[in-house]
Recover the amino acids of this structure.
């Protein structure tokens, strides 16, 4: 074992890590932006948007993420009519993937808000924007937070797959260094830790939040 | 869109697609069976009363859930030097078993303690108590999230392509390389994945309605819908 190879290539790894971090944050934000309309459409009273969103969510969730990445990589240039670089294609694929999963989390969050509260708000004369702003969204968002944080951990790990179309994230950086230096043990242990440490810390935090929420809910119901 | 679809390419390359489908099914079947077997053992450890076993179960689950499958595959293949097939099957089974273990642990712990105490006090052996009292009740809770994980195993088998296993996703890339018809190939492969998924869902649902006899209380536990890349 000679971890010199990590230290020597640290700037390169850090560049890769930055790409990974950017992709994770952008994917989470994009997933929320596109997940909300999908969630609303999925619970719509009209049949057409409901089935359309359901079909979309099912396909996204039923299809391997690698497949989605390749799909977008081939299709996107033909849709926009010009060259699309791997980074953009990878990001679009990740956002599509994450929207499908986030929409289910958002849907569960919205459903967790009791109907009685909404009716009470309506009977006190609030309009639907006020109801959404002061009644539904604050509760829904609190309930969604643990699941969204776990989803962020998943997204962080999933970004490791965009290397297949050539994006130089931290995992691709590792394979490049490995091809040059043949220090597989050190390099892949290092990369495993790069994923393991943040994922473990963040998922523990998410579990802590969930427990806190449950204990609070318990107090309310016993009061 | 100036792209003209040419679906005849699928018929032309049907050999590659079927070859890939066969390997995907093989990885899926082995991955599922092994991950359930390992997951059951680790899950029982995690639900154990002995602290040492619990810690072992927890470490196994955390270590495997918090590293991407592709990193494990590369580690097994490049650092460990396993051949590609062994690396792919081992990696997939170990990765998915961590999720299975967590499901089994939660399922076992959801059966009230009084049930196993009652079993033991009527003179059943610990093994009998587990197999006759606890597990039949736990299985109703285990099936929905376990089904999600079985489907994840199918989807994650595609990651084996990164170490050059010529499964379904790999073959679509092959078709792209030979004919520039990657989009058509990817569409066909996606439909195959969806078809396998729906077959599995139908099979498990049928199993559930016929064989699940005991249900613990009101089972309103939402199935775990998270992916596991």
């Amino acid at each position: 074992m000679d971890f010199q190879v990590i230290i020597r290539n640290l700037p390169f790894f850090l560049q890769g890590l930055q790409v990974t971090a950017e992709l994770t944050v952008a994917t989470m934000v994009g997933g929320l932006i596109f997940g909300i309309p999908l969630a609303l459409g999925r619970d719509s009273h009209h049949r057409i948007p409901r089935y359309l969103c359901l079909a979309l969510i099912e396909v996204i969730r039923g299809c391997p993420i690698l497949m989605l990445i390749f799909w977008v990589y081939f299709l996107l240039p033909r849709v926009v009519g010009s060259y699309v670089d791997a980074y953009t294609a990878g990001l679009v694929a990740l956002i599509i993937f994450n929207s499908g999963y986030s929409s289910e989390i958002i849907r569960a969050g919205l459903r967790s808000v009791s109907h009685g509260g909404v009716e009470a708000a309506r009977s006190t004369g609030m309009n639907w924007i006020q109801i959404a702003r002061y009644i539904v969204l604050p509760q829904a968002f609190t309930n969604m937070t643990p699941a969204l944080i776990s989803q962020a951990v998943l997204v962080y790990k999933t970004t490791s797959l965009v290397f297949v179309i050539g994006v130089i994230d931290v995992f691709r950086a590792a394979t490049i260094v490995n091809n040059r230096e043949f220090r597989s043990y050190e390099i892949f242990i290092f990369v495993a830790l790069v994923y393991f440490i943040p994922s473990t810390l963040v998922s523990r935090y998410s579990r802590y939040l969930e427990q806190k929420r449950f204990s609070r809910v318990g107090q309310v119901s016993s009061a | 869109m100036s792209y003209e679809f040419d679906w005849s390419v699928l018929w032309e390359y049907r050999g590659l697609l079927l070859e890939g489908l066969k390997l995907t099914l093989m990885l899926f079947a082995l991955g599922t069976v092994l991950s359930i077997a390992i997951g059951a053992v680790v899950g029982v450890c995690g639900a154990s009363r002995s602290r040492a076993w619990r810690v072992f179960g927890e470490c196994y689950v955390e270590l495997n859930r918090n590293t991407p499958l592709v990193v494990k595959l590369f580690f097994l293949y490049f650092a460990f030097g396993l051949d590609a097939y062994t690396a792919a099957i081992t990696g997939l089974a170990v990765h998915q078993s961590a999720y299975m273990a967590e499901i089994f642990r939660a399922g076992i712990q959801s059966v009230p303690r009084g049930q196993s105490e009652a079993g033991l006090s009527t003179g059943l052996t610990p093994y009998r108590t587990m197999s006759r009292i606890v597990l039949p009740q736990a299985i109703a809770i285990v099936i929905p999230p376990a089904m999600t994980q079985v489907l994840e195993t199918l989807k994650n088998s595609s990651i084996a392509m990164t170490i050059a296993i010529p499964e379904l996703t790999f073959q679509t890339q092959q078709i792209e390389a030979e004919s520039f018809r990657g989009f058509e190939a990817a569409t066909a492969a996606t439909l195959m994945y969806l078809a396998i998924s729906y077959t599995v869902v139908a099979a498990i649902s049928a199993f559930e309605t016929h064989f699940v006899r005991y249900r613990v209380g009101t089972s309103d536990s939402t199935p775990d819908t998270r992916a596991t890349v």
About this structure: Residues 31 and 99 of chain A are 4 Å apart (CA to CA). DSSP finds nine helices and no strands in chain A. Residues 184-222 of chain A form the longest helix (39 residues). Chain A has one domain: 4-222.
